[in-house]
Write a structure and sequence with these properties.
174 residues, 6 helices, mainly alpha, single chain
């Protein structure tokens, strides 16, 4: 699984194309949802902004295209993040970034914290179970192993960044 492919080979170009597509969809969905990055949950992405974030992502794509397993993990995670962004991007765009954040903060404060935390944990466990199942039954085959690891990575990222956002909102309110 530590296999690499030569830069410029057909496998490299395939991985590069898929990485650019996955990361591009994550970028597009983020821009559609939060053009000013007001709602960006990843503090590093928020700090880098569009210009430096784009440069960093291009570098990531160019480097990881020669390493298929991490490439598949990144592609899978990126596509799942993009799908999640697209799910609510229309609402974020309609309300506006600040109004959407305020609306979500109000909903979060109306809900019982235990229910919110339980739902986040349940979502994380369910996604992780699908990813872990793929990993377990992949028999070390590259694609199912990478997709499974990508799903688990996505689940962890959602849990971490959602928990961070909720904690910040709860801390401001208390």
């Amino acid at each position: 699984m530590d296999d690499t492919v030569p830069v410029g080979s057909a496998a490299y170009l395939c991985c590069l194309l898929l990485l650019l597509l996955g990361r591009g969809m994550d970028f597009l969905s983020t821009w559609l949802a939060t053009p000013n990055l007001v709602l960006e949950a990843n503090p590093l992405a928020k700090r880098l902004g569009w210009k430096w974030g784009g440069a960093m992502n291009l570098a990531i794509c160019l480097v990881f295209a020669c390493w298929p397993l991490p490439a598949i993990v990144i592609i899978t995670t990126s596509v799942l993040v993009a799908a999640r962004n697209f799910q609510a991007a229309w609402l974020m765009r309609t309300l506006g970034e600040s109004a959407y954040r305020q609306w979500m903060a109000e909903r979060l404060h109306e809900a019982r914290r235990g229910v919110v935390v339980f739902c986040l944990l349940a979502q994380t466990v369910l996604y992780s179970a699908v990813g872990a199942s793929l990993i377990l039954f992949s028999q070390s085959q590259l694609v199912p192993l990478g997709v499974g690891a990508g799903i688990v990575t996505y689940a962890v990222a959602v849990a971490v960044f959602s928990a961070l956002s909720m904690w910040r909102l709860w801390r401001r309110r208390d």
